[in-house]
C-alpha cells in the first residue's frame, strides 16, 4: 500500500520510527508537502516541513534546509515584492486636490454619467455636470453621448475635487480648471461677445468668447437683466445659439458664478413727457375723451399701486394716441419727467393708446420701478 501511495504522488515522503512499547510495533508517520517538491527523493533522514506563503522560496532550499527557520529569507522576499503603483498615484491625486493643481488627462471612455479620464495608473471620472459647457456652444445641438464619443482620445484640463481611495472614487472637474485659468481675465464692467448655450425660465446661460477664439466660461443673464421690458419667460427673448453682447455686472469668485446683463447695454427707455411719446401725427387729449376707452386693466393697477408702502396717491392724467400700435399688452413705464411735490409720472401704453399716471410717493425712482414690476406680476 505504501509503495502504491508513493507512486501516485499522494505522499511525497515517508518516515519510519519504532516505538518504545514492550511489544515493538511499527509506527508510520506521513509527512505531506508539495506534490512535485524537489526534495521528495531525499528520504535519507526524517524531514519536518512547515509551509510558508512564499512557496517559491521552498523550491530554492536544499533538502537539508528547514523552511521554518528561514525568517531572514522570508523578510527579504517581502521586500522584493514591488509596491502597487496605484498606492502612490492615490497619494498624488490627494496632493493635486490639496494644492488645487491642474492635471492634463486623456479621455479614454464615457458612460451615461460622464467621461473617463486616465490619471496615471488610475481611472478618474468627469461628470457631465462638471464639464465645461462652453466647449459645446459652437456645436449644433446633439445628444450628450454623441458629443462625448467625439472627445475620446483628446486631452482635457481638470482639477481633482475628490480622491477617496477607500471608495475608489476619483472625481475630476473641468469647470474648476477653467475657472482658475480664465476668471482673472474678466472683470466687472467688461463687455464681452457671447453665445446663448441654454435657456431656463429664470434666464439664459451665455458662453463667453475669449481673445483666443474659444468659449471658456459661462455666465447667467437673469431674466431681470435681459430687457427693460417685463419678461415672464426667457425663451420669449432667446434661442440656443444666439450671438449676444453682454456686460459683466458681478463675479462671485467663491461660488464661481458670473452675472451678466444685456439691458444695461441699452438706454433706459424713460420718456420726458407724454408729448415726447406722441408723434406729430398722433393725438393728445387733456382729459378722458368720450371717444377713447380707458386702458384695459389700468384701474386695477392703480388700486394695487395704492397698496404699496410709500405711495400715497394715484391719479390718471392725459391720454394720447400714437401713430402705430406698440404693443397689444398693457405696458407701464416710469417717465423721467421732472418730479414736483414728490409726484412721479408713469406712462401706461396698450396698442396705440397712451395715458399718464401720476404718483405721489416718498419712494425713490429705483424703488418705484421695483414696485411697478411687482404689481405687473400680480395683476393678470
Low-confidence stretches: 1-77, 279-290
Mean pLDDT: 74
The order of strands across the largest sheet is 5-4-3-6-7
Share of residues in strands: 25-35%
Shape descriptor reads elongated
Helical fraction:
10-25%
Main beta sheet, described?
5 strands, antiparallel
Rg computed from alpha carbons, rounded to a whole number of angstroms: 42 Å
Structural class: alpha+beta
Number of helices: 9
Describe, in plain words, how this protein is organized in 3D:
With 380 residues, the protein is an alpha+beta fold. Helices cover 22% and strands 33% of the residues. The chain has nine helices and 17 strands. It has a five-stranded antiparallel β-sheet. The N terminus is likely disordered.
Could you name the key traits of this structure?
single chain, 380 residues, alpha+beta, 5-stranded antiparallel sheet, 5-stranded mixed beta barrel, 9 helices, 17 strands, elongated, disordered N terminus, S1_domain, ribosomal protein, nucleic acid binding, Ribosomal_protein_S1
Sequence-ordered SSE layout with sheet pairings:
Layout: H1 2-8, E1 14-18, E2 26-30, H2 55-60, H3 71-80, H4 85-99, E3 102-110, E4 114-119, E5 122-127, H5 144-151, E6 155-164, E7 169-173, H6 174-182, E8 191-200, E9 203-209, E10 215-222, E11 243-252, E12 257-261, H7 274-277, E13 283-285, H8 298-307, E14 311-321, E15 327-334, E16 343-351, E17 353-361, H9 365-378
Short description:
The chain has 380 residues and is α+β, with helices and mostly antiparallel strands. It is built from 9 helices and 17 strands.
